[in-house]
Amino acid sequence: MNFKRKDILGLEDLSPEEITLILDTAEPMKEIMTRDIKKVPTLRGRSVITLFYEPSTRTRTSFELAAKYLGADTGSISVATSSVKKGESLRDTARTVEAMAADTIIIRHSSAGAPHLLARWVSARVINAGDGAHAHPTQALLDMYTIREKKGGFQGLKVAILGDISHSRVARSNIWGLTKMGAQVRVVGPKTLMPPEIEKLGVEVYYNWEEGLQDVDVINVLRIQLERQKKGLFPSIREYTNLYGLDRNKLQVAKPDVLVLHPGPVNRGIEISPEVQDGPHAVINEQVTNGVAVRMALLYLLMSRGEKDEIPA
Amino acid sequence: MKYLLKDGMVVDPIAKAVTKLDVLVEEGKITAVEHQVEAPDAEVLDLEGCYIFPGFVDMHCHLREPGEELKETILTGTMAAAKGGFTAVACMGNTNPPADNSAVINLIRDKAKEASFPVYPIGCATKGRNGEESSEIGDLVKAGAVALSDDGAPIMNSEVLRRVMEYAQMFNLPVISHCEDIDLSGTGVMNEGLSSTLLGLEGIPAAAEEVHVARDLILAEMTGAHLHIAHVSTAGSVELIRNAKKRGVHVTAEVTPHHLCLTDEAVKQFDSNVKVNPPLRTRSDIEALYEGLKDGTIDAIATDHAPHRSDEKEMEFNLAPFGISGLETAIPLVWEHLVETGILSPVEFAQKMAFNPGQILGLPDRVIKAGYGANLTVIDPRLKLPVKVEEFISLGKNSPFDGLVLCGWPVMTISKGEIKFSRHQ
Prior knowledge:
heterodimer; A: 4-stranded parallel beta sheet; B: 8-stranded mixed beta sheet; 18 strands; globular
């Protein structure tokens, strides 16, 4: 199947076939990561710029390594080091990056929709590395890769997304991707962190962990932003941990072979207890590995020129 | 100058009639409205097939001067108003400095005189629009303020609003309320609902408006003051106002063209040109707004013309300022969506655009009768044109309607007997 897209902005408009293609393509990419020399010349001469308006170590590094393993050149612009801080607008930065002849721009931004505007303004390809509470397609794809690898598929799988659904781009992208692939998705969290009419996306809503985690195959634990407490969205960290922090006790109601995911970085002992985080159900470190593989797959699918850019065995 | 408007359909909002009549205008006045007027020395304007309305008033616009002249000036704003079919405008006082003192009101009036267009300033209700201390309302009235409002900075303190209402009553001045509980709206940038959930943008619930509408209605009832609710956007607000009117509360209300034509689904492309406050709501809210217009709950249609610089709007959705440049699209938008579809008759349209806003602000000459001042808006219902933002006279090009083909454009605007705009050759 041909992958004909300029940008990857979200999973909302990807077809199940496209998602499958991305996940299938990530498999040989993961193999490259196990080689002695983790570099193929596939994207040699192509440039990838990461444009990050939010601090992030793992996602940026993951994208940069993905590009480098495929032989592309990389550059980075971040809030702390560039003119962004001096107040340059996104519009002007887009002009600048375009003028540098970037082939692909990876953007992370605290504003929902910023990647969509950028994609409209530049001829370079744009990959959304997280925009506000809107979308984080590569995180969802790596979550799905991890789930598929462990569970064999998605059809009929019960997946719970646990925590602050309102402010989570990870939750939204997971919902789009997983429901498209036939999983039964439920969201579990306090009502104050549940966005309105979320059930219209085809998910079940639970405020109570005992019901929400019942018999699930996968639990995707979201990071809780501690500043939400200050805004009155939950009474205290202690109460949040009591009601929604994933510990051994809460894990009991799930399937015995339940998979525990977390997009990281983890607030240890808050949204997930140390014994679960470090226990046999958690696949948090594998998610990081798979993240590089999935991002390699996306860069390859977007940037390669067909047969000329075969991956060397 | 003497003009004879021939063969147009004259709309009378009082007699509720549309009649094919000739209108003679001389020396700023209407001197004859009859079936056949002969005036050999007058310039004849053939208006066959066009509607002649009493002069439209935009009772809610932002002209930005003084202080933000890169967004708009009184000259460009009033020229845009004339092109948009308005014969007079009332401008909000959120300028810089704000219109909380007579000096700013005088400046606005001086600039309007230079632009030779009727501009009725709305003074700030409180000093600095802080919602704390009442401005010198008596002085504002003396300088020419026709209403009081802190507009986008709602008065959260109920005691302050109560006293402003009581004081304003002494001068027969309406208090215009931008209803928004700023704690409930918080840092929201669009309507709270399925669309905000999908887009991951912070929502402004309908309740943020309705809580304030309810409170303001209670205070209006208590004080007996004339409360005017600006840009009503939710079904709940319509219901609250309808009930208050039934109880005899002195309340009037307006709605904007964009709230009548667009829903929150328009935000999907993250185009900040659809970012307005109050935010675009849902289809059921629009249905309620239609109903409110039909049954008289909503008295007026006003643009809330809010011009911004292109670079300010070409921003991330949550960072861009609120507002739509609306003066030059209001009439065809409402015509296409409400008149052409039969929701409003031409007579009702005349009430919402001319007669009622004139009544609310106490402006003269909103009927077409001999002896009255000649304020006339001529609309050609057959004229079908695309909106072209680059042809806006307004400095604000921030419109989500660029390229939209609409019918019912204004073809002539006569204010105080002078042709301010004409498409006729």
